[in-house]
């Protein structure tokens, strides 16, 4: 799990450790989406609460408790998680949890329970939990994490101290820029908007986009190598081809030209495609690649201006540019 220190939007000291250990609420409802890094932050708090030798704002990372947590089996840390295949967290799980807590409570310095997503506790499970929250043991800490805290029963909410976790939005875009240095600010912002401002969801979207950019270049290469039909590839991509794909394609062809002219790979953007570039350079002449690259730049330019009436046809022509040259 990522250390929340890598998420600069939490730099706010308040978020990084909102309470002193002595003032930590026995039941804390963290209102936040997991795609804000709330789970990672919760684990940071959990290790702090369980640490045998905590520093001012974090666990020591060295003690027995810290090692147990790192190894993924701490006898005083309990998770109540909804399995993917389940609709809710059920009463049996809560009963088992309470039994485990009471069996071991007397020997422990502290026990921590993470419930996620807390809004998936069904009604019976929430009721079973109420009693433990009403009569808190001073060594037991409950962390309930939910992106939809208002959908928890009011009785449960009233037993918890709510902590609303927010990202400092000004920190999010620079973080994405550092993760995706090749992307324009516009496309990063676009991903962030699609992800409702949630940085980890935006990161996932951008990674998927990157993957699709790779797949697109793979398909172009296979057309050039005569392994796939240009018409089929055009048909497959026409509806999902973004400007970024076209730009990547144009850059790939630029790499081909560079390599053909210089026979050197140091300046290539697509270093990882060097073998394919070598094969393609052997297959067609410089003139053929120049024509091909020009068509793709034209297509990209038309797309940017929104002036291309029949994009599919132009795409086919560009992919077919090498044939009959
Ligand atoms: Zn420690």
What is bound: which ligands?
zinc ion
Strand content: 5-15%
- The helix tally amounts to 14
In the CATH hierarchy, what is the class of the largest domain? Answer: Alpha Beta
Distance between the termini: 53 Å
Number of domains: 2
Short description:
The chain has 14 helices and five strands. It has 325 residues and is α/β, with parallel strands linked by helices.
List the helices and strands and how they pair.
Layout: H1 13-16, E1 27-31, H2 38-50, H3 64-71, E2 77-81, H4 91-104, E3 111-116, H5 123-134, E4 140-146, H6 154-158, E5 161-164, H7 169-179, H8 185-194, H9 199-224, H10 230-237, H11 243-262, H12 274-283, H13 286-305, H14 311-319
Parallel strand pairs: 1-4, 1-5, 2-3, 3-4
Bound molecules: zinc ion (ZN).
The site of zinc ion has 10 residues, from helix 3.
Features of the shown structure:
325 residues; Rossmann fold; Zinc Finger, Delta Prime, domain 3; 2 domains; elongated
What does this structure look like?
By secondary structure, the protein is α/β, with parallel strands linked by helices. The protein is built from 14 helices and five strands. α10 runs antiparallel to α14. The protein starts with 12 loop residues before the first helix and ends in a 6-residue tail after the last helix. The chain has a five-stranded parallel β-sheet, sandwiched between helices. The protein has two domains: 164 residues, P-loop containing nucleotide triphosphate hydrolases (Rossmann fold); 106 residues, Zinc Finger, Delta Prime, domain 3. It is elongated. Bound molecules: zinc ion.
